[in-house]
């Protein structure tokens, strides 16, 4: 399914917030391999390390799990689908999973310790990845 206009606008806002955090590297739609199956979080956040375009071959998939996986609810997706994805990500060792809800202007942060819903302010997860919800949803009327 192709991302919607709202989905892609929110993804761009989140990436814009994350790229300024120089300790992290942000990837959009990167395929991660979990137990032999391909999964594509909307946004994956890794600890920053140098990329060597000369000596390393570029890859379209990775088995390295991100610190944070972010999924944005799109039309046609159910919460059950996203909860299943979040469970797969958590079980694979991803420390935090965000589920972004465009309609309610909120983000559910899931970790091994449970879930918490953010409606405003700064969300900072267990890895130190953070966003300002005011910026994430700044272009959206309530």
Q: Would you give an account of this structure?
A:
- The protein has 142 residues and is an alpha+beta fold.
- The strands form three sheets. It has a six-stranded mixed beta sheet, sandwiched between helices. Strands 3-2-5 form a three-stranded mixed beta sheet, with helices on one face.
- The model has no long low-confidence stretch (mean pLDDT 92).
- The protein starts with a helix and ends in a 6-residue tail after the last helix.
- It has one domain: tt1808, chain A.
Number of domains: 1
Ends: how far apart? 26 Å
Structural class: alpha+beta
Largest sheet: 6 strands, mixed
CATH superfamily membership:
tt1808, chain A
Summarize the structure.
The protein has 142 residues and is an alpha+beta fold. Helix content is 22%, strand content 33%.
